[in-house]
Amino acid sequence: MRKPLIPVLWMIGWAAFGCGRMTSAGRIPAGDDDSVVEAQKLFQSGDLAGAEEKARSAIEANAANVPAHYLMGRIYRATGRLPEAVQEWEGVVNLDPENGKAYTDLAKAYQEQKQFEQALASALEAVRIQPGEGKLYTLLGAVYLDKGQYDEAISSYERALELSPDSAWVYNNLGLAYLEAKQPDKAEAQLRKAVSADPKMAVAHNNLGAALLQRRQLEAALEEFKKAAELDPNYQKAAQNVSDTEELLKRKLKKTATKR
């Protein structure tokens, strides 16, 4: 039997949910479905307080109501209560170990809290459950990138591209992984694909500039940084890169003039 991902501490808090194991579809007893559906409608309409009240009522009626707890996690997340959201989703995957959505949301929440080991474990579970979903490999790549495991990040992004070709964001992220791995030639190739797929993607132009800068192509790097800053006037990192690269070019010209 596969060991549960969630620590025993969380299991204690969920003991009152009953000893029955939920199905992978998260089935709940008849009579609970209507309240969960209504809570979901309220959530989608933006009535978070109403959705929370309905979801809580569904949980009070059936403590092992997986869809209600999953929705409660989304409500907590939407209202800025990330630790509470994590607790809800941790309980969901203990009751329903094949709940790919809960593992995906857990991975993102752990990543946001910089709990990268937990994020990786959750992302791997999500991929195991839904191996044909390209977005999950993008998420997995991001977690590996955060952990500094660049080879694994590159492999994950390449798999994401196999499943979802011509994705500007995946090309950008793959290029960034190559940048972090100090492989600017490969980074440039992927980032050029990113700006080709989405010419208005400021972050891809900025990262392409960084790749060109690693290759000591200052003029070309400056051009990309300027494009990024023009596309997003509030992009402070791009603006700083413009300033820094202009200073490098001034020093280069001054050094050349001195040699003459």
Describe this entry's structure for a reader.
This protein is mainly alpha-helical and 260 residues long. The protein has a domain at 167-260: Serine Threonine Protein Phosphatase 5, Tetratricopeptide repeat (Alpha Horseshoe), CATH 1.25.40. 74% of the residues lie in helices and 0% in strands. Helix 2 runs antiparallel to helix 3, helix 6 runs parallel beside helix 8 and helix 8 packs antiparallel against helix 9 (150-163). It is elongated. Residues 1-31 have low confidence and may be disordered.
Q: Assign the CATH class of the domain at 167-260.
A: Mainly Alpha
Number of helices: 14
Average pLDDT rating = 88
Please state the CA-atom Rg, rounded to the nearest Å: 23 Å
Terminal residue distance: 75 Å
Summarize the helices and strands and which ones pair or pack.
Elements: H1 8-13, H2 33-45, H3 48-61, H4 66-78, H5 82-95, H6 100-112, H7 116-129, H8 134-146, H9 150-163, H10 168-180, H11 184-197, H12 202-214, H13 218-231, H14 236-259
Helix pairs in contact: 2-3, 2-4, 3-4, 4-5, 5-6, 6-7, 6-8, 7-8, 8-9, 8-10, 9-10, 10-11, 10-12, 11-12, 12-13, 12-14, 13-14
Overview features:
260 residues; mainly alpha; Serine Threonine Protein Phosphatase 5, Tetratricopeptide repeat; 14 helices; disordered N terminus
Provide a brief overview of the structure.
By secondary structure, the chain is mainly α. Helices cover 74% and strands 0% of the residues.
